[in-house]
Design a protein that fits this description.
mainly beta, 1 helix, 3% helix, 53% strand, disordered N terminus
Length: 320
Amino acid sequence: MIRKPRGLALLALAALAPLAHAAPMAYVPNQRSGTISVIDTGTDTVVRTLDGQKTFGKRLQQVAVDRDGKTLFVIDAAHSKLVALDIATDTVRTSTEIEDDAEGVTVSPDGKTLAVCVEGSQHVLVVDATTLATKADIKTQGRNPEHCVFSPDGKWLVTSNEASSDLDVIDLATNTSVATIKTTGHPRGMAFVPGTGHLYVAQETGNVVDVIDVAARRKLSSIAAGLRTAGLTASRDGKHVYASNGGAGSISVIDVAQGKVVAEVKVGERPWNPSLTPDGKKLYVANGRSNSVSVIDTTTRTKLKDIPVGEMPWGVIVGP
């Protein structure tokens, strides 16, 4: 019998073994630094800083990531541009002119379309995610639309209108606003909660999270949260919603089944726009006035770490 050298045998076994899955990256746009901090969620450290090869202005707003984790869509408000950034090379693939008061950008469930909320001039741009060509320019009925969110089936787009304290419901088949829904006060971050059919909306002056039935076009209830509730995200299993309270410096953990806050976790100053890892085990929240990102263990509901980032971080988006 011919025996293979032991080293070759180990190499062969290694080749057959499945590749370890790398931890997802978290992306943090730093408004006043004109940079994006990249956090490895496995080590909870900043591993890169992106700036589009020093082309970004010092007024970055929201970012969104494509389904492959290869492209970041960035609102560079200082230059009035929507930018598609190649993450691997930190180079701008393409960009398009937008108005200088755009703030929110989000990706449709199928990954083919972007929605950009243009806050000051009361409209939403529907944009092709590959070419950044504008497919529709939709006037909102409400004033100052800041955040946009697609319904899970991709049929509807909802905007949170800060100045009029309501939501626009946009039919994407006709690209028109077909309804408004009144909210408690100054709506900001939003998330559809899986398994419920409901939209949860942070209310900054109401200090609550509103539960909205979009199909019925009405508010169902309000859940008391913390002072100046602004950011919001939901777990993939639909069991919990996490709301950032800018005035309280905390995260409220909402149990969806119970319809109430079951824990509050202290973080940094002016937390907003949190994001969960795909497995739901960690929550990341940007602390705008602390220039940091807090990491929360969602099982123990404790803060694990504060990660220094750039100046005035706007929020966090965790990639796939």
